[in-house]
Specification:
single chain; alpha/beta; three-stranded antiparallel β-sheet; 6 helices
């Protein structure tokens, strides 16, 4: 009589996502599709912040306390993962390595721990400056927004260097809240934004800003030694 064929369960796999911005959205979607028990997969999100930061809303939050936007743009992760499918680690990634091809690798964290991965999603996002360089903790972030709100409130003349989407949004928010403030945008190109956007749209944005009495210096630059 032949012995039954031996069988073994496939090795458990770990999906690691680095970044709590777009990465958080990926983690949420995967948590709806995967089940740690039936799919034999562990899902881990590693994020430097204990919350999702809504950057578009953060522009208004930095300009005014009106509406309590500062608290609203810092969205807790407590309900991010569906049915608790996954783990969230709050730490910064200091390094990551890949083992032999197809064998995954390891992520090193600022707290001294390491996490092994079989599939790695890098969604680290961008590094912002100025009012959007928001501290990572909620307490410090709220204080940061409060400080910038005071600065914008006290300023009479505001210069925005660069006419991209962020500057356009700032100009619109400032003029919406304080029409009497003098707002100027200096932009290297002859049209606002960049070539990602159709020229018709770029010209319409220019028209709208001029209608709000935003001063536009297009085709010009500001030298580094001009700041005092």
């Amino acid at each position: 009589m032949s012995s039954p064929a031996s069988s073994s369960s496939p090795a458990r796999k770990t999906i690691v996502i680095i970044g709590g911005g777009a990465g958080a959205l990926v983690a949420r979607r995967l948590s709806t599709l995967l089940n740690s028990t039936t799919h034999n997969v562990d899902l881990i999100l590693i994020t430097a912040r204990p919350h999702f930061q809504h950057y578009i809303g953060s522009i208004r939050a930095a300009v005014t306390p009106e509406g309590g936007f500062a608290a609203q743009v810092l969205v807790p992760f407590d309900r991010l993962l569906i049915n608790g499918n996954g783990t969230i680690i709050t730490a910064e990634v200091t390094a990551f390595s890949e083992h032999r091809e197809g064998e995954g690798g390891t992520v090193m964290l600022s707290n001294g721990e390491s996490v092994r991965w079989d599939a790695l999603v890098l969604a680290t996002g961008s590094i912002w400056e100025g009012p959007l360089d928001v501290p990572k903790s909620r307490k410090e972030a709220l204080a940061w927004f409060g400080d910038w709100q005071d600065r914008f409130e006290e300023a009479r003349d505001i210069l925005l260097v660069g006419g991209g989407s962020v500057a356009v949004e700032y100009a619109g928010e400032i003029k919406d809240l304080s029409p009497s403030k003098n707002v100027t945008i200096v932009h290297r190109d002859t049209m606002l934004l960049n070539k990602t956007y159709p020229n018709k749209f770029r010209k319409d944005v220019e028209r709208r800003l001029r209608a709000r009495r935003v001063d536009l210096l297009l085709g010009d630059t500001v030298s580094e030694d001009a700041f005092t």
